[in-house]
């Protein structure tokens, strides 16, 4: 099955570690890959999903491009893809 | 134009000297630094460096165009920073002060809104709250 890398930053890095991989069936959406990942992590579902929906505070990148939660439903992953998750930023 | 993320301290004087041209009537320097918010003695700053570098370049280009700036330099630090240390320096040069002030404000607000950089309060070896 395709292997998808999930990279986490800030609070999510502390919770899940910086780099993880998840195996998903061919054609799984970004959202589906995140759901599969969340289920492998302690507190993953609580941290990333609310009522079955991706938390509105989560910022997503797919292969280094920002995407929104609607995109996450329609983009289909392939082997070697990278999904990045991070909370709101606070630089400056 | 210097657009960088780095662990080392920032030589602000060198930035100013290097960027000034005879077309500048104004240079504005914004310095963000580590404020003591209580129960902390340092900040840990985390960055997604390759994406942050690209974002800084995009923000600088947009600011140059929108405010007719002569130059933009943005240097943001990451790693552990003690109270009072410099976090970020934004230097803009322009023909006149209105566009220099506006450009500087635009850049810091965009940076805080978009660029993947995070701050966490530290007290000794204990990690505290993520700053939002």
Give the key terms:
heterodimer; A: 92 residues; alpha+beta; five-stranded mixed beta sheet; two-stranded antiparallel ribbon; 4 helices; 30% helix; 29% strand; globular; B: 132 residues; Aldehyde Oxidoreductase, domain 3; four-stranded antiparallel beta sheet; 38% strand; Mopterin_biosynth_MoaE (chain B); MoaE_sf (chain B); Molybdopterin synthase subunit MoaE (chain B)
Structure in words:
The complex is a heterodimer of chains A (92) and B (132). Chain A contains four helices and seven strands. Chain A has helices at 11-16, 30-40, 44-48, 69-74; strands at residues 3-8, 19-23, 49-50, 53-54, 59-62, 65-67, 82-86. A five-stranded mixed sheet of chain A has the order 2-1-7-5-6. The model of chain A has no long low-confidence stretch (mean pLDDT 96). Chain B has 132 residues and is α+β, with helices and mostly antiparallel strands. Chain B has three helices and eight strands, in the order βαββαβββαββ. Chain B has a four-stranded mixed sheet with strand order 1-4-6-2, with helices on both faces. A four-stranded antiparallel sheet of chain B has the order 5-3-7-8, with no helix packed on it. In chain B, 37% of the residues are buried. Chains A and B meet through helix 1 of A and strand 3, helix 2, helix 3 and strand 7 of B.
Could you give the topology of this structure?
The complex is a heterodimer of chains A (about 90) and B (about 130).
Chain A: E1 3-8, H1 11-16, E2 19-23, H2 30-40, H3 44-48, E3 49-50, E4 53-54, E5 59-62, E6 65-67, H4 69-74, E7 82-86
Chain B: E1 3-6, H1 12-19, E2 26-33, E3 42-47, H2 49-67, E4 71-77, E5 79-82, E6 86-94, H3 97-114, E7 117-123, E8 126-130
Helix pairs in contact in B: 2-3
Pfam families (chain B): MoaE (PF02391)
InterPro entries (chain B): MoaE_sf (IPR036563), Mopterin_biosynth_MoaE (IPR003448)
Organism (chain B): Methanocorpusculum labreanum (strain ATCC 43576 / DSM 4855 / Z)
